[in-house]
Amino acid sequence: MGDVSVPPTHRAEVILGDPRISRMADLLVNYSVRVGGGDWTLIAGDISALPLIREVHRSVLMAGGHPQILITDEHISLTLLQLATDEQLDWVAPGEREMFERADVFINVSGAQNTRALTRVDPTRQAKRHLAKREMFEAYLRRSASGDLRWVTTRFPTQASAQEAEMSLSEYETFIYQACKLNRPDPIAEWERLSRSQQSIIDWLRGKQEIRLTGPNCNLRLSVAGRKWVSGDGRNNMPDGEVFTSPVEDSAEGWVRFTYPLVWTGQVVEGAELTFSKGNVVKATASKGEAFLRSQLAMDAGAGVMGEFAIGTNQEITRFSGDALFDEKIGGTIHVAMGHGFEQAGGMNKSALHWDLVTDMRDGGRITADGELFYESGAFTI
User: Number of structural domains, the chain?
Assistant: First the structure.
């Protein structure tokens, strides 16, 4: 018998493994970033996420795009932070800059081999490395705001991340894929429905001047005058589910306590509370990791300014996982991000930091806009 040709759409390795991986790739490529013919598509991710990276690569090819693979490894990242001189930490490859300045699409598939690999690394060295990539980060945000760069970031379930979330790997896989609505017959239709629902909220908020948050964990006032609200509907994050804006930079007054641990570059901060005056953090405390919290807020001139205020809307995410990509989307929570603001929302704050900090509002938290109640105990009232 002669050789039998196998059609390019055949997915034998996925059939033998988890078919949700190919469904995820299809959702990322054909809904989130809408890859088209000729699109230069960067696919970046940790080596632990290789199964999904392979499927995304396949889906990009089938959509007519030009995929470029960028594989990272936490051992290499750790070695850089431990051994590099200051000059080496400041160096960014010219080719890396060019990719983020010219590519059409960026798909980030992150995974973790060890979620605490950087715990013992001097936080000032981590901050220095972030600062070195600031211009690249700003170009990324600028091109995203203008629509010149389409991007999405997601997670691939690994044993390390499952352990961090205090779940078995099987539980964690279900947690991730359910959060992405892959348990539904038509995930793309579900995300389109959420997009319409969130747009109605944004339409109501349009033109409002002041946001006030009150409750057991917050007493905070923000100006959003002249700022735009944006719908997080699965185009940039997967999973997604939030409406957000960038408050006027000098407007934050009051305090907020974060009910969930804050996880950042392998460090954990618990019991954090921030107090704001004229837009800047004037007091930062935590029951654990306070020194690290303060070091990050002092990273640069913009790190102590609120760059984002958001309301989580994803009802499929029902538990804390220690991963901000999921935790900030939990239905019934709000989050603020310290540092860099969003140009598409009118934000003007610049920083190498963008750190999302989450608090639960389901225990009596209230949000008003220009004095009108529109959110109470984790649910919209409009």
Answer: 2
Cα separation of 235 and 232, whole Å? 7
Asked if 170 contacts 18 with a C-beta cutoff of 8 angstroms, the reply is no
Average pLDDT for residues 179-190, to the nearest whole number?
A: 95
Stated as kind and residue range, the H or E segment containing 133 is none
| 199 plus 173 within the same structural domain | no
Summarised one tens digit per residue, pLDDT across range 287-317 is: 999 999 999 999 999 999 999 999 999 999 9
Examine the domain organization and report whether 46 and 150 are in the same domain: yes
Q: 304 near 320, Cβ under 8 Å? A: no
Convert the pLDDT of each residue in 315-331 to its tens digit: 999 889 988 899 999 99
Read off the pLDDT of residues 211-259 as tens digits, 9 standing for 90 and up: 999 999 999 999 999 999 999 999 999 999 999 999 999 999 999 999 9
Domain closes at, from 179, 203, 223: 179
Same domain, 228 and 103: no
Range of the domain at 92: 12-179
Alpha-carbon torsion angle 132, 135, 137, 142, nearest 10: 170
| C-alpha–C-alpha distance, residues 76 and 81, integer Å | 9
